[in-house]
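Async update (no meeting this week)

Hi team, since we skipped the sync, here's where things stand on the single-chain job. The sequence we agreed to prioritize is pasted below, unchanged from the tracker. I ran it this morning and attached the output directly underneath so nobody has to dig for it. Comments welcome in thread, and please keep replies under the output.
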Amino acid sequence: MSARDWLGLIRFSHTVFALPFAILAAFLAWSAPLPSSADQDYPSIRIQDIIGILLCMVLARSAAMAFNRLVDHDIDAANPRTAARHLPAGILSRRSVLFFTGLTSLGFVASTTLFLPNRIPLWGSLPVLAWLFGYSLAKRWTSSAHLWLGVALALSPLCVWAAIRGPWVLSEPADWGVPGLLATAIALWVAGFDIIYACQDADYDAKAGLHSIPATHGIEGALRIALLLHVAMLCSLGVLAWLGHRSGLGWVFAVSVLATAVLVVSQHRMVRPDDLSRVNEAFFQANATISVILLAGGVIDCYV
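Output:
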């Protein structure tokens, strides 16, 4: 077993989908004024918070991916597309992956103590893990598993917002407007591209009795649903760009939203019901670019 095997198990390169939004939420949280009831104008920028965000993101995602590989071991082994993954192929043992899952889960909970004296991240650590783990089981009984995954990634800006802004978020509901819009956009975006990705397994999922949008609605219907979700995602980003001035968002972020719209259109042009050969390209390259563009636009507006 090598480090490369473990990074491959958790698809570490896919961290680029969620981590930029956590970083963007941090910049927005630091640049938005605190409620009048607070004893300071803006949240403090602490090194330990930055380290905590990075550790929590990496460890929570690693634990969730490892758990997914564990519970999907038999499914992956029976599916020709996934039979070469680390557990079905015998590259890693179930015992070692189980230990890795437990270790990263404990590491995630421990990392939330870096935000002390703010205890909200520590209180929320186990419910967040439960939701992340729940995604891996959801497709066995509901086709809304795609949205479940979207919400899982959408938790990142909400958790970062609460971690940085502290107990004031509990007494000021209006303070959740900006991260709420960002989280909504992420949930819709992820659910849409997960449906596109799942089109590759539509036939297998239907035969195995697994619930997915492509298996229940067909590939053509699934691609239409994915497009509707992405249109709704762009609308959420547009509202965020319009109302986000309180947190420092301006015309640069608005341009990044327009660029995102172009990428979303190109993503859907890559995939057709009769041609799924470019799904991986549409899945990784376009989505990684979208997350980085939105991060860059938001950070530039907040601090330049």
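Quick observations from my side:
The chain has 13 helices and no strands.
Residues 7 and 13 are 8 Å apart (CA to CA).
Reply here if anything looks off.
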